[in-house]
Structures are given as C-alpha cells and as structure tokens.
Design goal:
Length: 298
C-alpha cells in the first residue's frame, strides 16, 4: 500500500538554463509565459544555445516530466517517477518513514509509565525481546521492544551485523562498558539497517516500535516462519511476567552482594547501569541472549 502523502505532479523545467528549477504545471501559470509563446527567442537562456529548426511558438528547451513528491514534508522535493528514492513511499515500508511518523505523532516519547502496556498490535515478539512486524506486501521490520529500553535506560552506541542469506539479523547495543548482542531467532536477509540510529541511539529507547526500528527487508507474503514468536493477547501477560522476573533477578543480585533481601520494590529504568559487569551479563543471559530464544514457549 502506498503512503497517503505521496503525490504525483506534472512539472516543467528549462534544459537551457545553467541551473533549472522544476515548476508544477497549471493552466494558470501557462498563460503569459514566455517559454510557450512566440517571444521565447528573447530569453537569455535560449539565446545562449543555437537551435536550428526551432518551433515558433514554444521554446525547444522547455521540458515536462511526471514527478512524485511528499505532501507531508515541510519542503517538497520532486523526484522523477522512476527514481528509487520514492520507492519506499509506494509500498508498505512507508509505515516507518520519519516524515509520516512525525505527522502521526509516532516519534513522540511514550509517556505511559508502565512498560507492561508497551505492546503494540500486529507485532510478533521473540523470547529475547526483539519484535518483527510483517506488512501484507511482505516487507518487514525488526526492532527491540520497550522492555529492552526499560532495562538499559539509554543506548550509548549501536552496531549492526547483517550477515549473508540464511543468517540471523544481529545488533550490538552498547550500554556503558557492556556490549549486549541481540540476535533475531528467525533467519532473515535484511535489505537495510536503520543507520540513523548510529547518531540517534536514543531513538531505540524513546521510539521502540516506530523510529527505533533496526532492520528492514522483504520476503514473499506468508513465507516467514512465525512459530516461536509471540503475538496477540498473551503478550501483555508475558511482558508483565518478564517484569516480575526482572525484579526477582535484581533483588536476588542485591541479596547476594549485601546479604539483605529487598522488601519488594521494582527495578528502576536503566537498572543494568547500576549493576557490576558480571551481574549485567547475567541479566543479559537471562533475558536477551540468543539462547533465550531456544527456551520453550508457554
Ligand atoms: S516521504 Fe514519507 S510521508 Fe512522504 S510520501 Fe514518502 S513515505 Fe509518505
């Protein structure tokens, strides 16, 4: 499905000028225009070029073309109809376009304080907290869920490992001194990574289900094996159980290091930053390691 903000227009431009500007065609602007009148030979741009057998009523350097442009962007840029740049606007990938997300408020940080409810519809969740969104036309996106953001609080650096066909999309999230390698359990060949995140790491935590996406690709519709991924109603319960497990793991660590048991309480956002390296790695192994994906589902 194409983006509702993608528009088409007929534009005209001058091939004789040193720098030409595309102008959207309209019958009103065509009137009184020198380029389409018999006074075109007076134009300085046309005079620079000698043109034999030129038509009398229309400048031979005036050209017209069909272009596309984004009606949602603050400044419209025309791109030729066949240009690849607008290809993602013409299919289901447009759902993750930054312009569209900003128009729909998708880039705004979530204010809901309960990570257990940060589960959007239509995603398939891996046991190690990566999600997959498959569009009807077969385009897909992968990202990390809000639980990862809750545990890390902030991502300091990001590296993508996009292997050959048959391999698993993998991302390394750096949190303080610790590298957390997250591997998507289904083998998929990504066509693109969200390279904007290299300079905007905060979006992984602030926009986990929209602008913080990690990998993008396309498969034949219905061909991805979704067995082993959670979706639908059980997700909220699973996320609540994961938070409960997280609290227990952190309390157990505190008890081991201080000899005292916490009297309840919940893990603060960014809890992994407050742990020493062995405890941080043990939290990683418990919730995010590739081996978590091999655990049996309920
Ligand atoms: S740039 Fe984004 S908002 Fe604009 S037409 Fe393309 S997908 Fe839609």
């Amino acid at each position: 499905m194409r983006c509702p903000f993608l528009r088409e227009a007929q534009v005209k431009f001058c091939r004789g000028a040193v720098s030409s500007k595309m102008i959207m065609r309209s019958s009103a602007s065509d009137e009184h225009e020198r380029c389409t009148s018999d006074s075109w030979p007076d134009c300085p741009a046309a005079r620079q070029h000698h043109q034999e057998h030129a038509p009398a009523k229309r400048c031979p350097f005036l050209h017209e073309s069909l272009v596309q442009y984004c009606a949602g962007a603050p400044v419209s840029k025309f791109v030729p109809y066949s240009d690849d740049q607008s290809a993602r606007c013409s299919d289901d990938r447009h759902a993750y376009c930054d312009v569209l997300l900003s128009l729909e408020g998708g880039r705004a940080p979530r204010t809901n304080g309960d990570p257990a409810t940060w589960v959007p519809d239509g995603r398939h969740f891996a046991p190690n907290h990566l999600w997959l969104d498959v569009a009807p036309d077969g385009h897909w996106h992968i990202g990390v869920d809000a639980f990862v953001g809750h545990v890390t609080g902030r991502i300091d650096a990001i590296s993508f490992i996009n292997g050959a066909a048959g391999q698993h999309p993998t991302v390394v999230l750096t949190v303080g001194d610790t590298d957390l390698q997250l591997v998507f359990p289904v083998a998929l060949q990504a066509a693109a990574t969200n390279n904007r995140l290299r300079s905007q790491c905060e979006r992984v935590v602030d926009e986990p289900y929209t602008g913080g996406w990690l990998f993008e690709g396309a498969n034949r519709p219905g061909s991805i094996d979704l067995m082993g991924l959670r979706s639908g109603e059980p997700l909220k319960r699973w996320m609540r159980d994961e938070l409960h497990r997280l609290n227990s793991a952190v309390q157990q660590h505190a008890a081991q290091t201080t000899g005292l048991w916490n009297d309840g309480g919940t893990a603060v956002p960014g809890v992994i930053r407050h742990l020493d390296r062995p405890a941080a790695l043990s939290l990683y192994a418990e919730f995010f390691s590739p081996f978590v994906a091999w655990r049996s589902l309920p």
